[in-house]
Amino acid sequence: MDQTDRIERQGKMTEEVRKTLIKAQQGELDGVETYKMLAEVVHNEDDVKVFKQLAADEGRHAAVFKNYTGEVLKPDKTQAFAVAALYSLLGKKILYPLIAKFEYAAIPGYEELMKDYPEVESVKDDEKRHGDTLNSLLENGQFNDRPKLPYVCAAIALFLFIRLTKRIR
Ligand SMILES: [Fe+2]
Q1: Distance 155 CA to ligand 1 centre (A)
Q2: Domains contained in the chain, number
Q3: Rounded distance, CA 29 to CA 11, Å?
Q4: pLDDT tens digits, residue range 84-121?
Q5: CATH number for 23
Q6: Ligand 1 centroid, distance to 119 Cα (angstroms)
Q7: pTM score, two decimals?
Q8: Which class for 113: exposed (0-12), middle (13-18), buried (19 or more C-beta within 10 A)?
Q9: Of 6, 72, 79, 168, which one's alpha carbon is 20 to 30 angstroms from that of 58?
Q10: Range of 75's domain?
Q11: How much distance in Å is there from the Cα of 43 to the middle of ligand 1?
C-alpha cells in the first residue's frame, strides 16, 4: 500500500474502526512483551526458541496496524508480567492452551478487518498458527512446571481480569 492509499483510507476510517485498529496495534505490542518475557522464564529450550519467534511475529503484526493508524504506541508490560507469573503458578500445561485460546479468539475480529484492510489477513493466519504452535508445545511432554494449586484460582481470576482490558495475540 502506498502513502496516498493509506492517507485516503485513513480519511475514510470511522472513529469506531480507528479505535479497533489502535486496540489491535496495542494488543500486538503487548503481545511482543508477553512472548519476550515468556522466552526468559520458560524452562524448555524449544519453548524459548518458539516464544522468541512469536514475539517477532507480534512485532510484525504491530507494524501492520501502525501502517494503518499512523500512531506510535508504547507497549504495556502489565500483561507480560501477569503471564510470566501465571507460568510459574499454573505451569505450561494449563497456561499454554489458555494463551492459544486467546490467539484463536482474535481471529473473528481480524476476519472482519481484513475486508477493508487486506494486510490483516496474514496477521489472522499467524494467530491461528500461533494457537496451533502453543498447543503443539504440550506434545513435548516434560511437565516439570507443576502448578502450585493453592494459587491457581487466584491466578485464573487475575488473568481473566487483565483480559477484560487487554488482549493477547
Ligand atoms: Fe499477533
Answers
A1: 23
A2: 1
A3: 24
A4: 999 999 899 999 999 999 999 999 999 999 999 999 99
A5: 1.20.1260
A6: 13
A7: 0.80
A8: buried
A9: 6
A10: 3-165
A11: 23
User: Which stretch of DSSP H or E encloses residue 17?
Assistant: helix 15-41
Ligand 1 centroid–CA 150 distance in Å is 32
Q: How far away, in angstroms, is 140 Cα from ligand 1 center? A: 24
Chain segment 25-59, per-residue pLDDT in tens: 999 999 999 999 999 999 899 999 999 999 999 99
Long-range contacts of residues 109-118, Cβ cutoff 8 Å, at least 24 apart: 109/20, 109/24, 110/24, 113/17, 113/20, 113/21, 113/24, 116/9, 116/17, 117/9, 117/21, 117/68
**76: CB partners within 8 A, 6+ apart:** 26, 29, 30, 33, 166
Residues 131 and 101: beta-carbon distance below 8 Å: yes
